[in-house]
Amino acid sequence: MKAVGLTRYLPIDNPESLMDVELEKPEPGGRDLLVAVKAIGVNPVDTKVRAPKDQVEPEPKVLGWDAAGIVEAVGPEVELFQPGDEVYYAGDITRPGCNSEFQLIDERIVGSKPKSLDFAQAAAIPLTSITAYEAFFARLELDAEGTNRGETLLMIGGAGGVGSIGIQLAKLAGLTVIATASRPESTEWVKQLGADHVINHYEPLRPQIEALGLKYVDSIALFNNTDQHWEGVVDLIRPQGKIVSIVENQKPLAQTMMKTKSATFVWEFMFTRSMFQTPDMIQQHRLLNRVSKWIDGGQLRSTANEVLSPINAANLRAVHQKLETGRSIGKIVLQGWD
């Protein structure tokens, strides 16, 4: 089967950083589905895993953690799907990724593809929707059904992949969304997605929040540069409020004011369930099905902002290069094989 892989971890401008390769088609066992991959989304995690380091893989390593496709075959323990089903999923970072014509994936982290979306539009959704959903409704313990209606949520990094679906999920829950963006095109994007207010994360946050008539915000989601924004968000979180981050810190995060406010800081990593085979792993299957229903009901829209074809090393290198600038808006998707 065709795939895109790497054996060395190189700068993205090196043609060998991602290469077209031929691999054996895998066979499903246990609760695995064998999926014929039709489209893939690309995320910052792909660039982080591929980042230069002194390591050589004995066999090509396949990246990619966002896909939509058709179930080709199923393992003997599969209960939720059958061959021919259209699916979408983010996958498991401990296993080969979706940058290949066929992929094995545990059915418990797979959802039924939204019927109203084509494969490319669907491939933009899984990783970011799982991340934002878990960040808001599991880590921040907000209520998807609207119990927290009217509460304020500050979202640092509103125009990226997670922010783009996150704004929509937060509005579904009735929250007042304050999203950050720094350019005219990203500001317009987050407004179209439903943000109530837009502020600039390159400028001091407190004066902009106070200009909205607020002293504190109820919850904060750090979807961009935890180190850079830590001091500002700790200042703005209300006493006994909660902050969630998806971006690892490089420096110690001062906790004195967090203690004074009895505030909570929590991490979200969407691969935790699959990585540790947690007993509630099937929650991601249910989550993705719920997102599908919202999309098909017109309550959510795809965040795909650019679609390239075909899926090959040259196109993937170009997308990685764009993501590494930190200035992409929404999601970039690749579809089809040569």
TrEMBL record:
It is found in: Cytoplasm. Residues 13-334 form the Enoyl reductase (ER) domain. Signal peptide: none annotated. One of its GO terms (molecular function) is zinc ion binding. The keyword Zinc applies. Keywords: Acetylation, Cytoplasm, Metal-binding, NADP, Oxidoreductase, RNA-binding, Zinc. Its main location: cytoplasm. One of its GO terms (cellular component) is cytoplasm. Gene3D superfamilies: Medium-chain alcohol dehydrogenases, catalytic domain, NAD(P)-binding Rossmann-like Domain. Homotetramer. Belongs to the zinc-containing alcohol dehydrogenase family. Quinone oxidoreductase subfamily. This is Zinc-type alcohol dehydrogenase-like protein. It comes from Gimesia algae.
